[in-house]
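Below is one such protein, fold included:
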Amino acid sequence: MDADFSNLSKKFNAMKSVVRVPDIDPKYKISILASKQEHCLVDLLHGWQDGRFPIHITSVISNHERGPNTHVIRFLERHGIPYYYLPTTKENKREEEILDIVGDTDFLVLARYMQVLSGDFLKSYKKDIINIHHGLLPSFKGSNPSKQAFDAGVKLIGATTHFVSEELDAGPIIEQLVERVSHRDNLRTFIQKSEEVEKRCLAKAIKSYCELRIFPYEANKTVVFRS
């Protein structure tokens, strides 16, 4: 089987070939990185608790401090999931410490982690990193995509889940979801609608990834087999 899949990956110029039997193999070990906004993080934690994802969350890492009585910290303590607060600066992204924490994970999830991981980090980690971007890529890259979309007068807003690459917001796209907006919306409602779409988009992408329905090919494309 290894030889057959290796030949297939070479034939189609696939990035990798993995054989995994979801009902037999252990759950994926993941770490979640998040900044101040919690909607995607909380949704993933509750989805994990409800058994929606075949994952084991080994840690949550953030550059934003949370008090001991906040919902996230109480949830993590109740389930025995370590929380690491690593404040970052432009000069120090704490990447070596993050690598030490996530070394034995199967993949990482950036659930609104508002820091750019360096090429050195990606080369050192060597495994997949999934990011949720609160805008429809390849438009509205970088920060404040909701404001960019609002200023552009769009009629559809959305979210994009993609693999992280060295170029900002340019990795292979896994999933995109949209929500209709109109002239009646303002920036606040743009952001509210975007947050709801983000949660669904990230959850759907992680589920597809864990069920081995994502097939990367060429330099920047994916095939996603629908369940």
Q: What stands out?
A: Residues 187-210 form the longest helix (24 residues). The two ends are 24 Å apart (CA to CA).
